[in-house]
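Instructor's aside before we start: the two examples that follow are unrelated to each other. I chose them only because their records fit on one page, so don't look for a connection. First example below.
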Amino acid sequence: MQKILVARPIFPDVIDRLKQHFDVDWNNADVLGADELARRLADKDGALTAGDPVGASTLAAAPRLRVVANMAVGYNNFDMAAFNRANVLGTNTPDVLNESTADFGWALMMAAARRIEESGHWLRAGHWQKWSYDSFLGGDVYGSTLGVIGMGRIGQALARRARGFNMQVIYHNRSRVAEQIEAELNAQYVSKEELLRRADHVVLVLPYTKDSHHTIGAAELALMKPTATLTNIARGGIVDDAALVEALRAKRIAAAGLDVYEGEPKLNPDLLTVPNVVLTPHIASATEATRRAMANLAADNLIAALGEGPRAERPPSPINPEVLGKGRT
C-alpha cells in the first residue's frame, strides 16, 4: 500500500477516507519543523500539506514522493521550480473557497470602514458613558468606490457583492479580464496608481510571488485617500506591514483590515499598537463547509494522482500538470 503523510490536523473523517486508499502517517499535533517534515516524507509517495514549506532539499530527501496536495489556493509555500525539476506534482484547492473568502473580505472591509473593532475595544474598556454625534465616525461603504487588486475568482466574487451596495468597481490585474466579465461586474480596468488614488476601499486578492512582494508599500499608501481603507485577504508579504503601521499611525489612510501577515503566525508587534486596524488570524476561508471542501479536494487530488491501473485519474486541480505521466528524476 502506498504511503502518504498528512502534515497537519484535519477532519478525522477525511483521514478515514484516505485510509481506504493509503497507509496514512497523520501529524495530528503541532506544525512540523523543516527537519521533521523531511524525515517523515522520506518514505512517502504523497503528502497533504496546509502551507508547510516544501522546497528542493525536502524533495531530495523524499525520493518516492510523487505528489504534494496543498489544502489552500495559494501555493507560495511550494518551490515550483524544484517540483518541476524533480517531476513532482503539486496540487491546490481552488474555487471551493471563493464565496466564503469573499464574504469574509467584505466583512473585514466593513469592520475597518465602520471602526467596529476599535469601538468594541473602547466599549469593553468601560469608556462608553453617553451618545455623541462624533463618536467613532467612519466611512460609508454603500455608494463608494471599491478598488480590487487581483481580479481572479475571489476578486470577481467581491465585485458581485459590490453591486448590492451600489458601488463603483475599479480593478487592477496582471492582465485585463474579458470584456464580458467586466460588463457583468460593471468593473473598470485601471492602473494600480489610479486605483489607489480613486478607491475608497482597496481590497487585495492577488497571489503572492516575488513580483507581488510589497505590492503595497510606503509609496503606494501615500497615493491613497486619507479616508480610504485597505483590506488584505491575499497573502502576507503583499503588504509592507511596517509601512502600513506608519501610515495608520499617521492617519495617512483611515483604517485597515488584515487577515494575513508577513512571517505569520508571527506578526509585526507594532500592528498591535495602532487602534485603526482590524486583525484576524488567517481565517477568511474558515467555515466548516468550506474547510471540509478544501480537505476533500486535497484528498481527491492525492487519490487521483497516486491511483494505479483503472484507479489512475487526472487530479482535479494540478498546479503543474506538465509533469503528469513523468517519473521522478
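Example two begins here.
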Amino acid sequence: MFQNIDIIRHEIPKYVMILSGDHVYRMDYAGLLAAHAESGADMTVCCLETPIPEAAGAFGVMEVDENMRVIGFQEKPEHPKPTPNDPEKCLASMGNYVFNTKFLFDQLKKDADNVASDRDFGKDIIPSIIEQFNVYAFPFTSAVPEQPAYWRDVGTLDSFFQANMELLSPTPQLNLYDAKWPIWTYQEQLPPAKFVFDDDDRRGMAVDSIVSGGCIISGAKVKRSVLFDEVRVCSYSLVKDSVLLPDVVVLKNCNIQNAIIDRGCIIPEGTFIGHSQEHDIARGFRVSEKGVTLVTRKMLGLPEGY
C-alpha cells in the first residue's frame, strides 16, 4: 500500500477499502462503507462473529465495547476475548478494512519509518492506533437474509481444499447456482464437458462432482471432485476427493485421491497419488497437515510455464 500511495492519491478518493486476496466470501460493500462514514471512524475493520474455539490460534480478534469501537486487538490468541453480547463468540478480523484516505497515508508513512515493523495491518497498524484514534468493527452479515454469512480463508492448502469440497454438497453455503446472488466473472467460452465410453470397465462418468467446461472424462471415473476448465481424465483412471486445476491431464490407469493437482500438470500413466503420504513425500510432492497431497508441474519435472 505504501508503494502505491501515488496511484491512490491520483484518484482523489475520500475513503480507501483494502481487501484480502486469499478469502472467498459474498458481501455487499455498501453497508460497510455506510457504517464507516456514519460512525466518524478513522478506520473500520470488517469482522465475522466466530465461535471462540474456531478462532483460537487462527484469526486476529477484535475486542470491542458496546458501540463496536475497537478497544483491543489480539493476533491469533489462544483465548480470544468474547463479544459484549455473546460470551461464546468473538469478532474475527476478515482482513477487510476501510480507511479515511489521509489517515491511511499518515499511518503508512509512520509505519515505513519503523524498521521493526512487519509491514502488516493486523500486527502493526491496528495495535498502534486503537488507543488514540477511532477504530470501529463492522459485523459481517449475509447479503441474502435467508442464508448464513459465508466467508472462508483459503490461504493454506487445507483451507483451499476444504472450501472446494464444500461446493460438492447438495446445497452448499456458497451456492454457485443461486440466481439471487450470481457470480459475475470472466469465463472463457469453452465447449461443454464431455463423458465418453460406456463399457463396463471403461465408463466415462462423474458423481457428486463439479466438472467445468472443456473437460473430457474419457472412460474414467470421477467421484467427489472439482475439475476446473479443460481437464482431461483418460481411460481406466480414477479421481476422487480431489481438486484438479485448469489444463490438467491424467493419463491412463492413474488413481488419485485427496489431492490438489496444479494447473497444467500431466500425470504420467499408472501414477498413484494420495494413497501413501510417505510415498508421495519421497517423490517430492507436498503433503499438508491434514493429509492433502499437492502436485505441481515442477514436482513432476515439467517446465513451470506451459
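The mean pLDDT is 93.
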